[in-house]
Amino acid sequence: MAAVREIVTALDNNWKWVAFGNAQHVCMFSGYLLFYLIGMLADMEYHIPPYVDDAFGILALTTEWLLFANHLHGMPPLEVLVHTLLGNVIKGGILMGFLVIWKKSQILPVLGLAYTILFQGTWFWHVGFILFPPWKSTWNAESHEHMTIATVIFIAHLFLNAVLILILNAFIARRLRGRKCLAKDSMERRMLLSQDEEPEKEREIFRNGTIP
User: Fold this and answer.
1) Residue 44 main-chain phi, psi, to 5 deg
2) What are the residue ranges spanned by the domains of the chain?
3) Where does the chain cross the membrane (predicted)?
4) Do the Cβ atoms of 7 and 22 come closer than 8 Å?
5) Could you tell me if 58 and 97 are in contact, meaning their C-beta atoms sit under 8 angstroms apart?
């Protein structure tokens, strides 16, 4: 819906594309749309290559990072700063995406990726209030002091989002323990252990030069 809105608002009364900046937003939303579509196909157990859903997630994040990295020409210093800080979060998400593929059965990379996505969302929301406040603007786009304040707010998001992820993780773990989903003989536990042991078995086969 967001991509459709960007396309509609980019056209004038003669259906001519006039808002070229909207093309960047359309590309970004399209990347995430592909990611979610591939993820749905993977969840529905369609025959797609392994890890392709994770690969499309990395592709969506990389597309977003490239668009924001080349979106700063001629902008005021404060606007450049908030976009640059956002770009750092996106790069962290790309790194977490690769770690999710590399350590598929580990929970920390998954939590890290969720953290960067949440961080993007809360920072996007706050940047909207900085650049387009609903009240009379009190931000000076050329002020070094205001840029420092924006950086401090970014750090606050960094810590608060980390705490929120930990709280959500603790809540979910508590619920699972209450249902005994992670008991020693539970199916979920056996699946996690088998996934974790499988790469080691494959490495052992290559080391011994034997095929079972």
Assistant:
1) -85, 5
2) 1-187
3) 17-39, 80-101, 113-135, 147-172
4) yes
5) yes
